[in-house]
Amino acid sequence: TMPKEPAVLRQNILDTTAAILACGIDPKKCFLFRQSLVPEHTELAWILGCLTNVPRLLRLPQWKMKRASQKSEGTVGLLTYPVLQAADILLYKSTRVPVGEDQVLHLELAQDIAQHFNKKYGEFFPVPKAILSEL
Q: How many domains does the chain have?
């Protein structure tokens, strides 16, 4: 949600990929891809954003904290980031999502969005459940 220098962003992508591989993820057994190259993430985020009301997003604690830390009124990207996260989860019809305590409310938003979408258009998205880590 914050502007990054293109060179720094490219290096961050490479560093993250290296860290994933160093953790033992085997690319022969799973798919590794750069999410930003998959337009369906942002397309679904747009659709889901049209089903999500602004007051709900304004109540999220992360919005309030990050907006305060940016010493501004906040950006649209910051406000709608949880909808993009919901799209990231729902696009793959995820049923279980590992989250930390700080992301539980964002997952609850994804659950609500899935339920709202399903009620309006028919059963399509599973409602994802949290897998909480103690770490």
A: 2
Distance CA 56, CA 69 (A): 20
pLDDT digits 0-9 by tens, 45-58: 999 999 999 999 99
Cα angle 93-104-38, degrees, rounded to a multiple of 5: 40
Are 44 and 88 members of one domain? yes
Are residues 42 and 18 both part of a single domain? no
Within 8 A by CB and 6+ apart from 130, the residues are 96, 97, 98, 99, 104, 107
Taking the C-alpha atoms of residue 66 and residue 58, their distance in angstroms, rounded to an integer, is 12
pLDDT in the model for residue 70: 65
Q: What is the pLDDT of residue 61?
A: 84
- pLDDT (0 to 100) of residue 54: 94
Indicate which CATH number applies to the domain containing 77: 3.40.50.620
- Integer Cα distance of 74 and 97 in angstroms: 27
Structure pTM? 0.86
Measure the CA–CA gap between 12 and 97, rounded to whole angstroms.
23
Using CB atoms within 10 Å of the CB of residue 95, give its burial: 0 to 12 exposed, 13 to 18 middle, 19+ buried. exposed
